[in-house]
Amino acid sequence: MAIANPSNSSCISTTVNDNIFILKAAKKYKGADVEVVSANGTVVTSPKLLKRKLIIDFKSLQSGDYNIKVKKGTAVEEFKFTKK
User: Fold this and answer.
1) How far is 71 from 49, CA to CA, in rounded Å?
2) Which of 4, 27, 61, 77 lies deepest, with the highest CB count within 10 Å?
3) pTM for the structure as a whole
4) Bridge partners, residue 54, by sequence
5) What angle do CA 16, 26, 3 make, to 5 degrees?
6) Taking the domain 2-83, which CATH number applies?
7) Residue 36 forms beta bridges with which residues?
8) CA dist., res. 67 & res. 36, Å (int)
9) In whole angstroms, what is the distance from residue 17 CA to residue 64 CA?
10) Please, are residues 31 and 72 in contact by the beta-carbon 8 Å criterion?
């Protein structure tokens, strides 16, 4: 299990396996827009962060690198996920 926590971040991401990405966010991010973008720039999903925890399942997506952006107002957090 890998944990990514950028400095000064209010979000913590956890990669459970090659297909699951778990995002745990501070209360200030509740209601934020989440955008999952493939390496070629295609937005593959864009759920809302309705609770403080969001599970993103990459099982049906192709292998490759993905950027995950959490945006609320002017606050933005970014994470990288590699599906093997």
Assistant:
1) 10
2) 77
3) 0.81
4) 23
5) 25
6) 2.60.40.3080
7) 45, 68
8) 6
9) 14
10) yes
- Model confidence band, residue 9 (pLDDT cutoffs 50, 70, 90): low
Angstrom distance (rounded) from CA 41 to CA 6: 22
Q: Are 84 and 19 in contact (CB under 8 A)?
A: no
Nearest to 35, CA basis, from 17, 49, 52:
49
* Amino acid identity for residue 52 in this structure: R
Using CA atoms, how far apart are residues 55 and 20, in angstroms rounded to an integer?
7
In DSSP terms, which residues pair with 76 in a beta bridge? 71
| Residue type at position 79 | F
Three-state secondary-structure class, residue 28 = helix
Q: Which residue in the block uniquely carries the two structure tokens 């609770």?
A: 51
